[in-house]
Design goal:
single chain, 276 residues, alpha/beta, D-Maltodextrin-Binding Protein, domain 2, Alpha-Beta Plaits, 3 domains, six-stranded mixed beta sheet, five-stranded mixed beta sheet, 9 helices, 15 strands
């Protein structure tokens, strides 16, 4: 039986590409229109795993997904870095001068601002997914409309690329995390962890935690803060850690626990191959 993998978006989306890269081709893709639906599908057991975007090199972190992960019984067990190449596509024969609307995910618009600024008369319409925007044009044979999506989406939905590689930064990467329900199993080659915590509401408490991490020669790859809902001006911190020795990381975790509140390991995994 094939693994059931939930993604946000449709077939031919960047999420599907990331899922196939991580799990291989022999999977059953469960399409989810939104991120909340993805997490709900995992909660109800309709999918065995999920691949979910958390961060883009240009647009930054998808902040609500951090809170969603923390509030579930899911854990990170891998990651994929995917080069995101944006293309403008439409029905065959359409020229950009004929396009009246462009549909795509809001993140795609953020990543193509320089290109889009050259066409102020074209209306931008946000959708739930890049590939779904392309699919809609094909299924309903919509003229004067274009979508921003992957080249694979153009191939799958038989659309013509009107303009290629329209993203502002050619080093445009998204970090996707592979999620599963917690089962206590350790993955091979662990050298990275994601944790979350609240620091004690005392002067210097966060600095003490970060100093302790440094004492164990652990690299702080990322730190992100999010407000604690219902407690004004208090925050959860989400931290990515990179280390060589798993035992040193575990010792460090034991030492920072008394300095924190609600310390939670979001995942222990092997770092994904970073683009060069």
């Amino acid at each position: 039986m094939n693994k059931r993998v939930a993604i946000q978006g449709a077939l031919a989306s960047f999420h599907e590409t990331a899922a196939l890269e991580f799990f291989g081709e022999e999977v059953e893709i469960i399409e989810c229109a939104t991120f909340p639906q993805l997490f709900n599908v995992m909660k109800t057991g309709e999918a065995d795993y999920a691949v979910c975007a958390f961060e883009n090199a240009i647009a930054g972190s998808i902040l609500p997904n951090y809170a969603r992960l923390r509030n579930t019984n899911l854990e990170i067990f891998g990651e994929v870095y995917l080069c995101i190449e944006m293309n403008l596509m439409a029905l065959a024969g359409q020229k950009i001068e004929e396009i009246e609307e462009i549909h795509s995910h809001p993140m795609a618009f953020l990543q193509c601002e320089d290109f889009l600024s050259k066409y102020p008369n074209i209306q931008l319409v946000e959708s739930s997914d890049t590939a779904a925007s392309a699919k809609e044009i094909k299924e309903h044979h919509i003229k004067h409309r274009a979508a921003i999506a992957s080249r694979r989406a153009a191939e799958v939905f038989d659309l013509e690329v009107v303009a290629s590689d329209i993203h502002d930064n050619k080093r445009n990467f998204t970090r996707f995390l592979a999620l599963r329900r917690r089962n206590g199993d350790l993955v091979k080659g662990i050298n990275k962890a994601s944790i979350s915590f609240r620091s004690n509401h005392l002067p210097g408490s966060l600095a003490k935690i970060l100093t302790k991490i440094g004492e164990y020669n652990i690299n702080l790859n990322k730190i992100q803060s999010l407000p604690v809902i219902g407690e004004e001006w208090k925050y959860y911190f989400y931290v990515d850690l990179r280390f060589e020795e798993f035992a040193d990381y575990r010792k460090m975790m034991d030492e920072i626990e008394p300095l924190t509140r609600e310390l939670k390991i979001l995942g222990e995994y092997q770092q994904g191959a970073k683009p060069v």
